Amino acid sequence: MEVLDLKGKKALVTGGTKGIGKAIADQLAKSGAEVIVSARTQPAESPYHFIAADLTNPTDVANLTQTISEAYGGIDILINNVGGLTTPGGGFSTLTDEHWEQELQLNLISAIRLDKALLPQMIKQGSGVIIHISSIAGKLPLWDLNLAYAVSKAALNSYSKALATELASKGVRVLTVAPGATKTEMMENFIKDYAASAGISVEEGVNHLLTQIGGIPMGRMAEPEEVASLVRFLVSPSAAYLTGAIYSIDGGSLPVVS
């Protein structure tokens, strides 16, 4: 068997219809996994079993879990990719209680809720892999751009580490992947909105963002497929002894040893 062979494995990728999530779904499928994707809105077409779900809604999570249980009996791989920056920049004074709640629900609680729903079956079978897609913002928060988002991702990192420790003896591995700036539609829209609010050009917005994070030594943003390749390795038999770690994939952006 090839070291990255995922034949016979069932994988759920949340937010799996575009961007990093779609790239992950494609990579896992190419490695032989049976892929299920979820998102709030159904795409025009998808090669994978699609289940509509808003993971900030407990009822949707319950329905998603029931559908998977009835159709597949459970899963072997869970990619918690749903998340995003939805709150305004400008620092603490611009953020309301609702902003904080919104960001925590999307980037932290949704993963906790889905893990809790799907973990019993993984524990029962004595195997499974959970990947939480975080961000380097969890280690490098930018107060004027992504304060609430960064805090929610830092909390996700801590939760993921604790969960990994709890589940290590039960055969379930938990890992975190923290991308830096990645060329996705979400990133493009964020830069456009930021540039518009600041009254600057999109190019100036890109330069400001990259300056804020200290630049990217490799000189470019990541492609979604590059993040997906790391995830593919981490869920494979080649990574069988890895759990509890956070893997930054940022072209060298983080200016500290991590």
TrEMBL record:
Source species, domain of life: Bacteria
PROSITE patterns: ADH_SHORT (PS00061)
InterPro entries xref list: NAD(P)-bd_dom_sf, Sc_DH/Rdtase_CS, SDR, SDR_fam
Any matching Pfam family: adh_short
GO biological process assignments: monocarboxylic acid metabolic process
Annotated transmembrane regions: none
Coiled-coil stretches noted in the UniProt entry, renumbered to this chain: none
NCBIfam families: PRK06523.1
Family: Belongs to the short-chain dehydrogenases/reductases (SDR) family.
Protein name as it appears in the record: SDR family oxidoreductase
Organism: Mucilaginibacter pallidiroseus
